[in-house]
Amino acid sequence: MITITFLGAARTVTGSKYLVESNGTRVLVDAGLFQGLKELRERNWQDPPVPAGSIQTVVLTHAHLDHCGYLPRLVAQGFRGRVFCTLGTQDLCRIVLPDSAKLQEEDAAYANRQGFSKHKPALPLYTAIDAQRALTLLQPCGYDRKMPVAPGVEVDFINAGHLLGSSYVRMKVDGRTILFGGDLGRYGRPVLPDPTPVATTDYLLVESTYGDRVHEKDDDGERLCEIVKRTAERGGKLIIPAFAIGRVEELCYWLRRLEKEQRIPVLPVFVDSPMAAAALARYTERVKELDPEMQPENQDDLAPHDAAAPHPPDVRRQQAMQEREVCIFCTERFRVIASPEESKQLTASKTPSIVISSSGMAEGGRVLHHLKAALPDARNTVLFVGYQGAGTRGRRLVDGEKSVKIHGGWVPVAAEIQSLDSMSAHADSNEILRWLHGFTSPPKQTFIVHGEPAAQDALGRRIDAELGWSHKAPEHRETVTL
After folding, report:
1. What is the pTM of this model?
2. CATH code at 222-423
3. How far is Cα 94 from Cα 278, in angstroms, rounded to an integer?
4. Cβ distance 50 to 43 under 8 Å?
5. Can you state the percent helix, strand and coil of the chain, rounding each to 5?
6. Homologous superfamily, domain 2-213+425-481
7. Number of neighbouring beta carbons within 10 Å of residue 287
8. For the segment 367-415, what is each residue's pLDDT rounded down to a tens digit?
9. What average pLDDT does this structure show over 69-83?
C-alpha cells in the first residue's frame, strides 16, 4: 500500500510538501514554506504528522522557498536523512537557505526590540545553524539518472524548465510510478529550456498556480519597453520587486536586449539583492543548462561594462568580481549593490534608474526600503513581474490599494503600479494543458496541487473537457491511498 499525505500546496499555492509512505518507508517530496496570509504562515510552526526523525529521505524539485524553505525547520525537529536534488538546486539552496535563516533571526530580533510579538521572547522559525546543517545533507544528482533514495524507492529528475536545476521527480515505488510535477516552466521563453515532455505515469501531481489564467502574449518586450521609457520621461525611478532566484535573470535578459536594440534609454540598472547577485553568478556558471541563446557570443560578454563612479578600492573590487560573474546578464550601466550602506544611498537617490530588489511579493528584504521611498512620488513606477499571493503586500498594491503598511507605518501610494504577467516562470492554463497532452496514456489519478481554489477548479474543468482524466484537488493534510 502506498499513501500520499498532502502537507502543503493543497488548495493553496505555497508550502509544497508531500509525504509518501510505503512498507514502513517515509519519503518527503519537497519541504516548502507557507507564505502569504497569516493563517498560512502559522502552519510553518505546526509539527508534521509524523516525527521528523522517522522520515528517511527528502527529495526536492527545486530551490524556491515554497519548495525547500522548510528544510532547516525539519532538521531542527530531528530529520537526519539525505536530501536528494539536482546540482543546480544544490547551488541555489546554498544561497536561499542561509538567507532565509538570517531573515528569520532578524525578524525575531526586531519583534523582541519592538515588543509586538505575542510570544516572549519571539523565536525564529529556524536558525543559521539549522540552515547550515540542512545544507550538509544535500545529495546532488544529474538529470535523467535513476537513483535509489530509500528502501524500495527510486527517483529520477526530469528538467521542468522553471528555474535553474528545477525538475519533476519521477518516483518508482512498489511497482508504481508517481510523477511529482513540482512547478512547470514555460514554453518559448528566454533563459531556460522548455519543460521536458513525459509520456506515461501511474499517478501525477500537477501544479495549478495559473490554472484559471492565460498569460499575456509575448510582445517582444514592448510593454516593459513602454514602462521604462514612460518612467524615464517623468524623471522617476522604476522599482521592480523580483524573486531573487529565477525572475531577476529574465528581467536582466530583457533589459540588456532592449538596450542593445536601442529601444530603451541606457539607464543605471541596480541589482540590490545579494541573493539575486549570487544566483545570477550560478546561472552563469551553469550556462550550458540554459537556453542556447544565452551562450556568450565572445569574451567581451565575460567582463563588467560600466566604469562606475569611484568607490573605495575594496568595495569596487568586490563589485567588479560580482559583475564579472554575472556579465551575461549585464546591461551597459549595470551595478551590483555590495553593502547595506550602498543600498541606503540608492534608496535616497532621486536619479532616474532601474532598481531590481527582492522580495518578489514585497513581503520583506531591501525592496521595502525602496518602496517606502518611491511609492509617495508620482514620478516613480513599481512593476511587479511575478505571482502575487493572496494577502501579500504585492497583491494589495496590484489590486489598487491607496496606502500600504511598511515597517509599522502607512505609506501613501502615488506611484504608477504595473504588473507584467508575461514574465511569469509558471505555466499558464494553456501551457499546463499543452504539457498534459504530451502524455500518451492517462494517469490513473491526477492530483491538482499548488494553486488557489479558483485556479485548481478551473484547471479541473479543462482537464474534464479536453482530456477526460480522473482528477481531484486534495485538502490540506488529506491522505490518499494509491
Report:
1. 0.86
2. 3.40.50.10890
3. 10
4. no
5. 35, 20, 45
6. Ribonuclease Z/Hydroxyacylglutathione hydrolase-like (3.60.15.10)
7. 12
8. 999 999 999 999 999 999 988 878 889 999 999 999 999 988 999 999 9
9. 98
